[in-house]
Amino acid sequence: MKHSVITLLFLALGMTSSMNAQKFGFVDTAEIVQSMPQVKEANANIETYRTQLQKKGQEKLKALQAKYGDLETKQGRGEISRVELEAEVAKLKQEEAELMKFDQESQEKIIAKSQKLLQPLTDQIQAAITEVASEQGYAYIFDSSTGFVLYADTAADCGPLVRAKLGL
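Below the sequence we write its predicted structure tokens.
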């Protein structure tokens, strides 16, 4: 009796899984990205841009350091009054704040340039994944480099059922 119940259970599971068989796949997007010549070109452009901004920031920093050095020299020689010194220090502090702002804006510009150059390539990869999924009948495609779902057949969306179960 126990043996026949187990056999019936396996038979029922086998029939259910074959009736609802869904095809799963995976792709390593990190490997795909690394193999795309367009990505290498975009990364080279981003690195050139980063280097230009860093060079400009270093020039500004050297100029600021030189001004601080000149001010110290003037103070050491007694060529500047206390009031003038405080005014010059305030100006240099303002320049220092502007340099920090430049650094922050540079980082934001680099991120924006990266997104501008790489987003079309990411979209291209996603479109190819969607096409492969559709052509080959995959219900889900996972990214093996991150573990995220890259494609999901909307027919497999259980959200409406869950919302209904919750009375939403």
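Residues 1-19 have pLDDT under 50 and may be disordered.
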